[in-house]
Design goal:
Elements (H helix, E strand, L loop, with lengths): L7 H19 L3 E7 L5 H20 L8 E7 L4 H13 L5 E4 L3 H14 L3 E3 L16 E3 L4 H12 L6 E5 L4 H17 L4 E6 L10
Parallel strand pairs: 1-2, 1-3, 3-4, 4-5, 6-7
Protein backbone atom coordinates (compact mmCIF):
# COMPACT_ATOMS: atom_id res chain seq x y z
CA UNK A 1 0.00 0.00 0.00
CA UNK A 2 1.29 3.46 -0.90
CA UNK A 3 1.64 5.74 2.09
CA UNK A 4 0.88 9.42 1.59
CA UNK A 5 2.26 11.96 4.01
CA UNK A 6 1.17 15.57 4.31
CA UNK A 7 2.92 18.50 5.95
CA UNK A 8 1.50 19.56 9.32
CA UNK A 9 0.35 22.89 7.81
CA UNK A 10 -1.69 21.05 5.16
CA UNK A 11 -3.19 18.74 7.77
CA UNK A 12 -4.11 21.72 9.93
CA UNK A 13 -5.76 23.51 6.99
CA UNK A 14 -7.73 20.39 6.11
CA UNK A 15 -8.93 20.05 9.70
CA UNK A 16 -10.00 23.69 9.85
CA UNK A 17 -11.85 23.36 6.55
CA UNK A 18 -13.69 20.33 7.88
CA UNK A 19 -14.66 22.16 11.04
CA UNK A 20 -15.76 25.23 9.09
CA UNK A 21 -18.16 23.40 6.78
CA UNK A 22 -20.97 22.87 9.31
CA UNK A 23 -20.76 26.51 10.45
CA UNK A 24 -20.89 27.76 6.86
CA UNK A 25 -23.84 25.50 6.10
CA UNK A 26 -25.72 26.78 9.13
CA UNK A 27 -24.93 30.47 8.58
CA UNK A 28 -27.80 32.56 7.29
CA UNK A 29 -27.19 33.47 3.64
CA UNK A 30 -26.89 37.04 2.44
CA UNK A 31 -29.86 37.25 0.10
CA UNK A 32 -29.64 39.74 -2.77
CA UNK A 33 -32.78 40.65 -4.69
CA UNK A 34 -31.93 40.98 -8.38
CA UNK A 35 -34.65 42.29 -10.71
CA UNK A 36 -34.17 42.79 -14.43
CA UNK A 37 -35.83 42.76 -17.86
CA UNK A 38 -35.24 39.04 -18.40
CA UNK A 39 -38.21 38.57 -20.72
CA UNK A 40 -37.95 41.72 -22.84
CA UNK A 41 -34.14 41.94 -22.97
CA UNK A 42 -33.36 38.22 -22.95
CA UNK A 43 -30.36 38.47 -25.31
CA UNK A 44 -28.52 40.64 -22.79
CA UNK A 45 -30.03 39.64 -19.47
CA UNK A 46 -29.74 35.87 -19.92
CA UNK A 47 -25.91 35.82 -20.15
CA UNK A 48 -25.80 38.54 -17.49
CA UNK A 49 -27.73 36.31 -15.06
CA UNK A 50 -25.48 33.34 -15.90
CA UNK A 51 -22.44 35.46 -15.08
CA UNK A 52 -23.92 36.49 -11.74
CA UNK A 53 -24.64 32.87 -10.87
CA UNK A 54 -21.05 31.91 -11.70
CA UNK A 55 -19.81 34.71 -9.45
CA UNK A 56 -22.13 33.56 -6.67
CA UNK A 57 -20.85 29.98 -6.93
CA UNK A 58 -17.22 31.13 -6.97
CA UNK A 59 -17.69 33.33 -3.89
CA UNK A 60 -19.46 30.60 -1.98
CA UNK A 61 -16.78 28.08 -2.88
CA UNK A 62 -14.23 30.50 -1.43
CA UNK A 63 -16.13 30.87 1.83
CA UNK A 64 -18.81 33.42 0.97
CA UNK A 65 -18.86 36.93 2.41
CA UNK A 66 -17.77 37.22 6.06
CA UNK A 67 -18.41 33.50 6.43
CA UNK A 68 -21.94 33.68 5.03
CA UNK A 69 -23.04 32.25 1.66
CA UNK A 70 -24.39 34.54 -1.04
CA UNK A 71 -27.87 33.76 -2.38
CA UNK A 72 -29.21 35.62 -5.43
CA UNK A 73 -32.99 35.84 -5.83
CA UNK A 74 -33.84 36.64 -9.46
CA UNK A 75 -37.09 38.26 -10.62
CA UNK A 76 -38.33 39.82 -13.87
CA UNK A 77 -39.06 43.53 -13.44
CA UNK A 78 -41.71 43.61 -16.18
CA UNK A 79 -39.76 46.36 -18.00
CA UNK A 80 -42.10 48.99 -16.55
CA UNK A 81 -41.65 51.27 -13.52
CA UNK A 82 -44.88 50.11 -11.87
CA UNK A 83 -44.11 46.40 -12.19
CA UNK A 84 -40.53 46.93 -11.05
CA UNK A 85 -41.55 48.73 -7.86
CA UNK A 86 -44.06 45.95 -7.09
CA UNK A 87 -41.37 43.30 -7.60
CA UNK A 88 -38.89 45.26 -5.48
CA UNK A 89 -41.45 45.42 -2.67
CA UNK A 90 -42.00 41.65 -2.87
CA UNK A 91 -38.27 40.99 -2.75
CA UNK A 92 -37.92 43.02 0.44
CA UNK A 93 -41.03 41.82 2.25
CA UNK A 94 -41.52 38.23 1.05
CA UNK A 95 -37.99 37.16 0.15
CA UNK A 96 -36.34 39.14 2.94
CA UNK A 97 -33.41 40.24 0.77
CA UNK A 98 -30.67 42.41 2.26
CA UNK A 99 -30.62 44.82 -0.67
CA UNK A 100 -31.71 45.27 -4.29
CA UNK A 101 -29.68 45.12 -7.50
CA UNK A 102 -30.22 45.17 -11.24
CA UNK A 103 -32.68 46.81 -13.69
CA UNK A 104 -31.94 47.48 -17.35
CA UNK A 105 -34.07 50.39 -18.58
CA UNK A 106 -33.35 53.89 -17.32
CA UNK A 107 -36.95 54.73 -16.43
CA UNK A 108 -37.24 51.46 -14.50
CA UNK A 109 -33.97 52.13 -12.69
CA UNK A 110 -35.19 55.58 -11.65
CA UNK A 111 -38.38 54.12 -10.24
CA UNK A 112 -36.53 51.49 -8.19
CA UNK A 113 -34.04 54.13 -6.99
CA UNK A 114 -36.92 56.25 -5.71
CA UNK A 115 -38.44 53.20 -4.02
CA UNK A 116 -35.10 52.35 -2.38
CA UNK A 117 -34.84 55.90 -1.09
CA UNK A 118 -38.32 55.70 0.42
CA UNK A 119 -37.58 52.36 2.05
CA UNK A 120 -34.02 53.37 3.01
CA UNK A 121 -32.55 50.23 1.44
CA UNK A 122 -29.47 49.88 -0.75
CA UNK A 123 -30.03 49.69 -4.52
CA UNK A 124 -27.09 48.75 -6.78
CA UNK A 125 -28.07 49.77 -10.32
CA UNK A 126 -26.15 47.49 -12.67
CA UNK A 127 -27.34 48.68 -16.10
CA UNK A 128 -29.38 51.95 -16.22
CA UNK A 129 -27.36 54.74 -17.84
CA UNK A 130 -29.50 57.82 -17.16
CA UNK A 131 -27.50 60.63 -15.57
CA UNK A 132 -30.50 61.46 -13.38
CA UNK A 133 -29.98 58.22 -11.44
CA UNK A 134 -26.97 59.59 -9.58
CA UNK A 135 -27.37 63.32 -10.23
CA UNK A 136 -30.71 65.15 -10.52
CA UNK A 137 -32.67 62.31 -8.90
CA UNK A 138 -29.82 60.67 -7.02
CA UNK A 139 -30.07 59.60 -3.38
CA UNK A 140 -27.81 58.22 -0.69
CA UNK A 141 -29.11 54.66 -1.11
CA UNK A 142 -28.49 54.30 -4.87
CA UNK A 143 -25.16 53.36 -6.44
CA UNK A 144 -24.27 52.51 -10.04
CA UNK A 145 -21.52 50.31 -11.51
CA UNK A 146 -21.53 51.65 -15.10
CA UNK A 147 -20.70 55.05 -16.64
CA UNK A 148 -23.70 57.31 -17.19
CA UNK A 149 -25.20 58.59 -20.43
CA UNK A 150 -23.08 61.75 -20.48
CA UNK A 151 -19.85 59.81 -19.98
CA UNK A 152 -20.65 57.34 -22.76
CA UNK A 153 -21.65 60.13 -25.15
CA UNK A 154 -18.47 62.00 -24.26
CA UNK A 155 -16.43 58.94 -25.28
CA UNK A 156 -18.22 58.90 -28.64
CA UNK A 157 -17.54 62.61 -29.13
CA UNK A 158 -13.84 62.12 -28.44
CA UNK A 159 -13.75 59.30 -31.00
CA UNK A 160 -15.07 61.60 -33.77
CA UNK A 161 -13.16 64.71 -32.76
CA UNK A 162 -11.34 66.23 -35.73
CA UNK A 163 -13.31 64.26 -38.35
CA UNK A 164 -14.42 66.06 -41.48
CA UNK A 165 -18.05 64.91 -41.65
CA UNK A 166 -20.33 67.90 -41.16
CA UNK A 167 -23.80 66.36 -41.50
CA UNK A 168 -24.96 63.90 -38.87
CA UNK A 169 -28.12 61.91 -38.22
CA UNK A 170 -29.23 60.46 -34.89
CA UNK A 171 -31.15 57.21 -34.43
CA UNK A 172 -31.89 56.44 -30.79
CA UNK A 173 -34.49 54.47 -28.81
CA UNK A 174 -37.45 56.57 -27.71
CA UNK A 175 -37.05 56.52 -23.92
CA UNK A 176 -35.03 58.38 -21.31
CA UNK A 177 -31.62 57.01 -22.26
CA UNK A 178 -32.00 57.62 -26.00
CA UNK A 179 -33.36 61.13 -25.56
CA UNK A 180 -30.59 62.09 -23.13
CA UNK A 181 -27.84 60.58 -25.28
CA UNK A 182 -29.11 62.50 -28.32
CA UNK A 183 -29.28 65.77 -26.37
CA UNK A 184 -25.73 65.31 -25.06
CA UNK A 185 -24.42 64.47 -28.54
CA UNK A 186 -25.98 67.56 -30.12
CA UNK A 187 -24.67 69.78 -27.35
CA UNK A 188 -21.06 68.54 -27.71
CA UNK A 189 -20.90 68.00 -31.49
CA UNK A 190 -19.98 71.56 -32.48
CA UNK A 191 -17.02 71.55 -30.10
CA UNK A 192 -15.67 68.31 -31.58
CA UNK A 193 -16.26 69.24 -35.23
CA UNK A 194 -16.70 73.00 -35.86
CA UNK A 195 -19.53 73.63 -38.29
CA UNK A 196 -21.07 70.16 -37.87
CA UNK A 197 -24.84 69.85 -37.49
CA UNK A 198 -27.48 67.21 -36.87
CA UNK A 199 -29.71 67.17 -39.96
CA UNK A 200 -32.06 64.31 -39.03
CA UNK A 201 -33.31 62.55 -35.91
CA UNK A 202 -35.30 59.35 -35.51
CA UNK A 203 -36.59 57.94 -32.23
CA UNK A 204 -38.14 54.51 -32.87
CA UNK A 205 -39.77 52.63 -30.02
CA UNK A 206 -37.40 50.63 -27.84
CA UNK A 207 -36.52 47.34 -29.53
CA UNK A 208 -37.96 48.41 -32.89
CA UNK A 209 -34.91 49.88 -34.61
CA UNK A 210 -35.08 48.92 -38.30
CA UNK A 211 -31.60 49.12 -39.81
CA UNK A 212 -33.12 49.21 -43.31
Amino acid sequence: MTRITLPRRALGAAALATLARPAFAQANPIRIGELNSYARMAAFCGPYRNGMQLAQDAMNAAGGAMGRPIELVFRDDGSTPGDAVRVAEELLTRENVAFLAGTFLSNVGLAVADFANQRKRLFLATEPLTDALTMAQGNRYTFRVRPGTYMQTKMLIEAIRGKTAKRWAIVAPNYEYGQSAAANFKRMLADAIPGAEVVAEQFPALGRVDAG
